[in-house]
Amino acid sequence: MVFSARLSVDNSASMEERLVGTLRVAVDVGGTFTDICVMDESDGTVRVAKVPSTPDPIDGVIEGVGHAGVDFKDVALFSHGTTVATNALITRKLPRSAMVTTRGFRDVIEIGRGTKDDLWDAYKDVAPPYIRRRDRLEVSERVDYSGNVLKELDEGDVRRAAAILRKREVEAIAVCFVNSYANPDHEIRAKEILEEELPGLAISASSQILPEIFEHERFSTTVANAVLSPLVSGYVERLGARLTAEGYGGDALLLHSGGGVMTPKLASKYAVRLAASGIAAGAIAARHVAVTCGFENAIGLDMGGTSTDISLVWQGRERVTRDWFVEYGYPIRFPSIEVLTIGAGGGSLAWTDPAGALRNGPQSAGADPGPACYGRGNTEPTNTDANVVLGRLGEELIGGAMSLDRRLAEEAVERLGERVDLERVEAARAILRVANANMADAVRLISIRRGYDPRDFALVVFGGAGALHGAALAEELAIPTVIVPPNPGITSALGCLLVDIRHDFAIMHLADAGTANAQAVEEEFQRLDIEARERLESEGVPPEQITLERLIDMRYVGQWRSLSVSVDNPLDLEAAVDLFHNEHEREYNYRRDDAGVEIYQLNVRAIGIAPKPEFKRHAISGDEPVPEAMRSVHFDEADEAVQTPVYERGELPAGATIVGPAIIDQLDATTVVPPGWSAEVDEWLNLRMSKTEVAR
Amino acid sequence: MSRSEGRAYTLDPVTFEVLKNAYVNTVDQMAEQILRTCHSFVIYARDFSSALCDLQGDTIMQGTQDIAVHVGTLHYTAKAVLDAFEGDINPGDVFAINDPYLGGTHFNDVRIIRPIFVGDEVIAYAQSNGHWADVGGSVPGSFDVNAKEHFAEGLRIPPVRLWDGGKYLDDVVRMISSNSRAPSDIEGDLHAQAEATRIAEQEILRLVEKYGKDTITTGFTEVQDYVERLTRQRIAELPDGTWETEDYIDYDPAIGEGLVPIRVKMTIEGDQVMYDLSGSHPAVGTFLNAGFGSAFSGIVAGTKTFFPDVPLNSGFYRAIKVDLGPEGTVVNATWPTAVTGFCSGPYEKIMNSIFELWSNVMPERAIACSFNLEYLLVGGRDTRRPESPYFMWYDWMVGGWGGRNGRDGSNATAPIFGVGLAVQPLEGQERLSPVITTEHTIRADSGGPGEFRGGCGVEKGAILTEAEQTVMSYCCDRARSIAWGIEGGLPSLPHGVWLTRKDGDPDFLGAVFSNVDVAEGDRFTRPSAGGGGFGDPLDRDPNSVLEDVADEYVSIERALIDYGVVVELVDGDLAEYTLDLDGTERERARIRAARVGWLEEDAESVAERYRAGTLDVLDLVRHYGVILDWGSGDLLPKTTKTFREMLVRRAVPHW
After folding, report:
1. Which chain B residues contact residue A449 at CB under 8 A?
2. Dihedral sign, CA of A254, A259, A260, A265?
3. Interface A:B, Cβ pairs < 8 A
4. DSSP state of B624
5. Run of H or E residues at B43
6. Pick from B535, B569, B589: which residue ends a domain?
7. Which range has the worst mean pLDDT, A433-442, A607-616, A654-663, B300-309?
């Protein structure tokens, strides 16, 4: 029995008669490429494809799936990560939208917290709000902190606002009232009136989108949801229609920022949940690869041309945050997989500042003109150029579809070297050491800083450039194992392939954990449980596949930030408080057993578990791998260049072991195995690298 | 330019770059820790800083997200601790200090300092500085506007030991916390800060293990040299010269009305920049005075704004030479003069003056005056709950920043004193205090007019509900020394609180007052100023004025008065307006011909027209340069004279 049958648009009996295929298809649409990952459930085999992204991303999706040799009629499950929402927010290609709010508070989203991203540059501004001031209309109403009505809703005001917005032809409205988390009645009534006056418009009420305290964060999330919803619903409708026309019989499942998928119906309603869809995919893939290989703890490093996304997996789960935004100043308070993006990629430029320090990034040569060795006019050295100079990267990319000009790389690196008194090879090494150190600092910020020791982790490297830097970075951080998945360039798409339906529910519950009525807390949880089950069932998830996880956000009395800890069902409050002390100590290095602990918020994570077939395991072969070629490569571990065997990744059978130094080439990536390291191909065809002298 | 020129570096370029970034990473890790574990809501609003200091106490690196107002003071407090405990600093020790007379800022800013030992040799000090919510004194929050001496302001902590060889000194901590209205929060913050310094210790020890102690300590010196070099090189590329300006505190109650000058002279000579503040006024009879540490901080923070990408450490300070002038002035106050209000008093006057001076040197980064930091405190008994607990509604606002060269100032932004200082959510405030916010909105016409107008300030109104024994205090300035424009731009509007008693009329309380009794049903409101304008407002593109009118950043009336732009309403429902360009040309010609004369009109007759209601406060400030007591309407003749001279200096030459 397949999950998709229950997730189809139409749950009628006729659907059961539909012949369902055996293919799971995941498509990850990025800014430059659309990646496709296909798994055949009948035998666990995987195939991949990569096509350029198209102006209408759906064209790329359809084309890419065709490119992978898939007939939509054979597709059992189609899942999708998309940057449609993220890009719309960044480029501000948004429909005209309006806000209806409490009189006196239309500027809450413009005032925000008043802070700037750049503390020192008086010419760097925070972006303007998503809705212009003239389109934020005020109505009379007010409730207080405990939900008492101080001023009744003036329904006439709401109808007048509706008349104005009709004339302005807005496409979406955010309804955001002060203290609506404590009493949503006015907001809901205003929304009803607006729906009545303006049928068909996308209307988001803050108490329904994110019922929690703090007006700016709630309004900001709601506004982002409102401005995205016409766009996202249009997108999922068009996508659904195209998929149906191509012969797919189910729902397209959309990856949301929290790392689960949702159906098109809910994506339209909670459009803002897609705002980090594209970034989440890579982190999920890293987790999947690590867990498959038997590692519960891992750091994912997705290194592309201009930036690197770093994520952390702890005890088999991605770290999730609620402090994030697409643009500074406009928080989106839905849980999102925590990904740290830094400006370090293959195309990052190396440069010297006026005081003579050797710097690396964040400026990038991008894809065009790209590194000096692309020969498209950039003459400044990039990380890619340094890799070419050192021989770690060959002179051909994408199986010969693109050639790199070694001479141009050398010239660029030499010029930089003159400025820091280093000859060419040393300058190239220096460039990469700085780049690796910057990445290592970023990894430290999300690992050591939070009490995680990288030595307990595996490093999963992917993206076009990850495998080039993986071993050096692991060395820097004392990480014992590096995993390079079979298709580093499309690993993100893999993240969309095997995901569960997931929703997050939260309720404010301020109470002293020492004196709280555990029964009352348990009852609140049960209410959330009911809501969570209803939501999943409305998406067609059968009861036996539903899992509900409970978390409590707690803090020491007087603290401003809270810490989320998992709790049992039914609730054992005492154990939860113990766990809080422990987690606080792990995360922040200290505990205060004698201090009061406060409950802040209750959360339920609702998961509709999709049964996941196993990936095909490949038989371990005893064949000795044979190098395709030899080339001269400079490593950090040896002063002189070393004659190094170059292997073709596709030719390496499961079980093959390669002792460094070695280079392993494949279509979309190059793996460096330095001297003192070895690489082993496992039964899923991952490359696992480790230091030879370290006992495993 | 080659690295080998000038001062020699011994580290190779890669190790140097790696260590430099690692030091930055270390202090930023400290910041992360503080933010997530602090108790003081002031710290949580980002009023904190972190530093790594060397054996002399000099700053090796300061956090990239630190509040501006602490910049340039952490080395002073490190040095004070080193002096006090010379020869007696041991592994496991942790120290505290908040003394503004030893280079600290104000008593709330308590610095926790931990020596970092390799074996039995100390190699560095980690310092975490945070604004504690209350350190005693005569008023809650330790901000007594009327304090003349420090004894009313709060507990003065000279260098003291908190941990002795790893042993927590309960008695000392009790001594400190017992002097606070929030002892438990103080202890929480103390732990949070002490742990932040431990994070730094761990990081530095990790680096020592990897690179060796000598490399790390060499790095400490070389990153300071590097920053000094970088700064000096930038300065050397600029023209030599001397520039002077002055800004003002509203008045000194010990003397009476009359603006209190802070004079700043800047000289660039070769690769050195020198500041001379010696012409500044004697210390005032309120707490709006600065000790040497905070005055230096204002200079550093003002300068750093023009070098946003240069890392902060003592190398930067070495390129800056400062003469604060004689002791006892408003910028060089000594014990026991009250100094807690330095942040609303001299601090931003120094920063804005420096912005103006550098605007001459780097016109591409020019910026007019920004609004003044302000805090409103309402404290008393909350009778919503049977036990009537103590409450403290401690509120600060965003405001407008100065107009810029080619760009309007930014609206509704945190004060230049600390761009990370986040406003508090009113929903949180309403849970904690019996104060209901009635509006929190951008104030139309608050941006100083200019070709590029100042950013808009905001207006926040509130009503006191169920409360008893409640008083209100306000720490601000610029009710009279109003945020000014440059290059022909005009000022914003006066700061100050308006209080309307239940069944009474609005009463102007001014921009600095303390312990005013308030009762249930009383309403109060205050604006924050916008920024001053940049350039002649009559040169502003009429279409920009039109857009401002559509968004109500500028009213249709003041578009005419301040910009000479005739805007007509087409359809209010569509927010549609149109320009009368011929009318605009005529109106602009009329203003151009008359405006210099307005500044020379008899001030008393202008005040009379204000009292009669034919002119309003913005007309007086922007067109006549006349400053009144805004409540009574009484003319302030000395203040007006100086304010008019200021306009003649900053605006008239550019018209």
Report:
1. 29, 32-33, 199
2. negative
3. 219
4. I
5. helix B41-44
6. B535
7. A607-616
How many other C-beta atoms can be found within 10 angstroms of the C-beta atom of residue B210?
A: 13
A556 touches chain B (CB under 8 A): yes
Q: CA B296 to CA B275: how far, in whole Å? A: 10
- Cα–Cα distance list, A570 to A543, A550, A688 (Å): 19, 9, 41
- Distance separating alpha carbons of residues A171 and A167, to the nearest angstrom: 11
pTM as predicted: 0.91
| B241 φ/ψ angles, rounded to the nearest 5 degrees | 160, 175
Query: Are B372 and B518 within one domain?
Result: yes
What distance in Å separates residue A216's CA from the closest CA in chain B?
Answer: 7
Q: What distance in Å separates residue A209's CA from the closest CA in chain B? A: 17
Structural domain includes residue B35: yes
Check B305 against A122: CB less than 8 A apart.
yes
Answer yes or no: is B152 within a domain.
Answer: yes
Distance CA A241, CA B168 (A): 68
Calculate how close chain B gets to A692, using CA atoms only, in Å: 21
Residue B328 located in a structural domain? no
A563-567 and A629-633 beta bridge pairing: unpaired
Q: Could you give the 3-state DSSP secondary structure of residue A587?
A: helix
Which DSSP state fits B521? T
- How many Å lie between the alpha carbon of B624 and the closest alpha carbon of chain A? 30
What is the pLDDT, as a whole number, of residue B257?
Answer: 97
**Interface pTM (ipTM) of the complex?**
0.94
Whether residue A118 and residue B233 make contact (CB cut-off 8 A), yes or no, is: no
Is A561 near chain B, with CB under 8 Å? yes
Residue in chain A nearest B433 by alpha carbon: A145
Q: Which residue has the tokens 């495998």?
A: A467
Nearest to A657 by CA among A638, A684, A639, A680: A680
Q: Are B529 and B495 in contact (CB under 8 A)?
A: yes
Say if strands B390-396 and A677-681 run parallel, antiparallel, or are unpaired: unpaired
Instruction: Please tell me the distance from the alpha carbon of residue B363 to that of residue B404, in angstroms, as a whole number.
Output: 9
Q: H-type helices in A498-572, by residue range? A: 518-538
What confidence category does residue B8 fall into, taking pLDDT thresholds of 50, 70 and 90?
A: low
Residue of A nearest to B417 (CA): A119
CA-closest candidate to residue A455, choices A428, A486, A484, A476:
A476
Which residues in chain A (216-255) have CB-CB distances under 8 A to chain B? 216-217
Q: Cα angle vertex B99, ends B95, B105, to 5°?
A: 110
Of B308, B371, B376, nearest in space to B518 by CA: B376
Q: In what order do the strands lie in the sheet with B506-510?
A: B435-442, B458-464, B523-527, B497-500, B506-510
Considering A449-453, A482-486, A594-598, B309-313, the range whose residues carry the highest mean pLDDT is A482-486
Judge contact between B526 and B459, C-beta under 8 A: yes
The domain tally of chain B equals 2
Question: Helices marked H in A27-76 — which ranges?
Answer: 57-67
Q: Give the range of the structural domain holding residue B175, as residue numbers without chain letter.
A: 13-231
Q: Are residues B19 and B167 in the same domain?
A: yes
| Domain end marker among B197, B231, B265 | B231
Tokens standing for B57?
Answer: 């106490």
Contact B421 A121 (CB under 8 A): no
Asked if A510 and A598 count as a contact pair (C-beta separation under 8 A), the reply is: yes
The rounded distance, in Å, linking the Cα atoms of B450 and B532 is 8
Q: Which among B317, B632, B482, B422 is positioned nearest to A112, based on CA atoms?
A: B422
Helices (H) and strands (E) in chain B, counts: 16, 22
User: Is A113–B308 a contact, with Cβ atoms under 8 angstroms apart?
Assistant: no
Report yes or no on B461 lying in a domain: yes
- pLDDT above 80: residue A4: no
The residue among B528, B44, B367, B420 whose CA lies nearest residue A126 is: B420
Q: H or E segment at A15?
A: helix A13-17
A594 inside 8 A of chain B by CB: no
pLDDT of residue A7: 28
